[in-house]
Specification:
With 223 residues, this protein is mainly β. The protein is built from three helices and 16 strands. The protein is globular and about 50 Å long.
């Protein structure tokens, strides 16, 4: 239970305090298809880290990724690679905004963030670090903990739009090509290791998400 609470506190602290976004890239709204649940279940499996949790869902997920560095393909993971990695996801409300987040990795991670307001959805490629700030939009920007990079060729499918009162598990799929961003090469003695890496990512992600009360989780983190 202590490990699970630490995951919630760490990720919600990143979510509430360190995010940045750039220009609006809203779409008309997600496709609603209850049958996406079947496809999700084909791509995820039980994780040893997910036992007993019902807020941030943790499971193993296939990473379907093309990662580019300096405009050249660096890593390519397709369906046939069948690579399974621990994944976490949840949905939440902040005012009139519905957010859905999912990321590979327990504490930081790489994945997606959806923001929905009045039927309009915006899909970002999300990157988060927990030990020290690691990402920037531009080469000379200050590094930050959480980056939300605008996407093109975005596709969003949800099993349903979640109801704030029912707090049901929802299922979904996102597909996108991210814009460019910069990633730190590491840190030593409190100093950034240079040079930074120019990167972009194409991803396809199947996910399921449960409701997370981020206000309550942040209060737990402050006690």
């Amino acid at each position: 239970m202590t490990k699970y609470l630490l995951i919630i506190i760490t990720f919600c602290s990143i979510l509430s305090a360190c995010g940045q976004t750039t220009k609006d890239n809203s779409t008309a709204g997600p496709t609603i298809d209850p049958n996406i649940k079947t496809e999700v279940e084909k791509n995820i499996t039980i994780s040893e880290f997910g036992a007993g949790q019902d807020k941030i869902l943790i499971y193993n997920n296939r990473m379907l990724l093309d990662l580019y560095e300096d405009d050249k393909l660096s890593i390519s993971l397709k369906e046939q690679d069948n690579k399974s990695t621990v994944f976490k996801s949840f949905y939440y409300w902040q005012g009139d905004t519905l957010g859905i987040d999912g990321a590979f990795g327990l504490f930081g991670g790489t994945g997606f963030s959806i923001k929905m307001v009045k039927g309009k959805a915006t899909l970002y490629h999300m990157l988060a670090s927990d030990n020290f700030p690691s990402y920037a939009y531009n080469q000379k920007d200050s590094l930050i903990f959480r980056l939300e990079v605008p996407c093109t060729d975005a596709k969003i499918i949800l099993s349903e739009i979640p109801d704030a009162t029912k707090k049901k598990v929802i299922y979904g799929y996102v597909e996108f090509k991210s814009g460019d961003y910069y990633s730190s090469s590491g840190e030593a003695d409190g100093q950034e290791i240079l040079p930074r890496k120019k990167q972009s990512s194409n991803m396809k992600i199947y996910f399921k998400s449960a409701y997370l009360d981020i206000k309550s989780s942040n209060r737990k983190g402050s006690t």
